[in-house]
Design goal:
Strand order of the largest sheet: 1-2-3
Strand content: 25-35%
Structural class: alpha+beta
Largest sheet: 3 strands, antiparallel
Number of strands: 3
Shape: globular
Order of helices and strands: HEEEH
């Protein structure tokens, strides 16, 4: 099984926007993206690497809405 990529919040945001998600709102340092009823919350902390669970959630959301 290949290792998960290490992503920053900005990289995760770029992947989500490219997949058709749009920025719904912010709550503190968290940004909420949505597409087709699927919601993803990404914590934005200056250049920090996202936790692997968050990366897994982002990738799963992109796969789910793209139909892969």
């Amino acid at each position: 099984m290949p290792k998960q990529p290490r992503l920053t919040a900005a990289q995760a945001e770029a992947l989500l926007l490219k997949a058709g998600f749009f920025w719904l709102r912010s709550s503190g340092s968290h940004r909420i993206y949505v597409k087709d009823g699927r919601r993803v919350v990404v914590p934005f902390h200056s250049g920090a690497i996202l936790h692997p669970k968050i990366v897994r959630e982002v990738i799963a959301a992109i796969d789910e809405v793209s139909g892969s």
